[in-house]
Amino acid sequence: MTESTLLYFIPQAGFAYYLYYVGVDRILKRKHRTFFIIIEILAVLFFWIVIDRALTNYIELPFIHHNLLKAAPLLDLRKIPIVILYLGYAAGLFFTVQSVRNQMASKEREKNLVKEKLETELKVLRSQTNPHFLFNTLNNIYALARKKSDKTPEVIMKLSDLLSFMLYQSGKDVIAIEEEIKMIEDYIELQKIRYNDRLSLQLVKNIDKGSQQIAPLLLMPLVENAFKHGASETRFDSFINIDVRLENGLLHFFIENSIENCESKKENCNIGLSNIKRQLELMYKEYKLNIADKDKTFKVNIIINLNSYGKI
To answer: What is the distance between the alpha carbons of residues 111 and 120, in angstroms, rounded to a whole number?
Structure first.
């Protein structure tokens, strides 16, 4: 950039800055009458034309070109249109750059607001997955304690581990899938005390990588629903079958349970499933959720690409 270019940058930048931040702003906000604003803009334009011509005659020609070029009158009508052209070009370029920057900043703000909104919604959804088993488990522990059962310390320890998970792990963005499954297994062991032999329960798992990350409490509500709306409401041939498979980051989770009087429980069940579906929408780009409700059997099948977490 030559000395002349730097010199003329002063009036060009000055006029562009005024026009963008003062003149146009006043017109858009209508703080004053449009006529007076236009007069003001023309006056400012005239001021920067004079500054531009003065820089040419009193600085550029004598100090940069050493008076090799003849100076024209300060307000030479042949020079003024050229000055206006340069000032207008600089203002237009400034407008374009600032408009692009403002649009990008606006999109970034909008993106952050959407992200904050979705994070808040996700926190609300997770808070709704509070464990429903605590009351019954405490009653079971009380009954075992009265019988002085040898299982009492073990049950209390499992409950302690489960509550510890709820308090300290569920607030994380992701956890190892082996931790999620361990919590499910502890929960199942606690429920077995309540149902004894009247419930047929099977858990099959095939995990190729236990450290694979998954959103906490994503699968647990499905297991809770199976007990709450299935096993607890089924008098005969009560069963719950769970199959968990993980291969190369692709998770297959299948659960089915016996049901009776399904219509009376369908609303609560749908609320829980809607919660899970919304969490999947917020967290994973690639997933499938299939629900089947027939022949006194309720089935849920979920397929999730765990590597698509947070890539929506």
So the answer is: 14
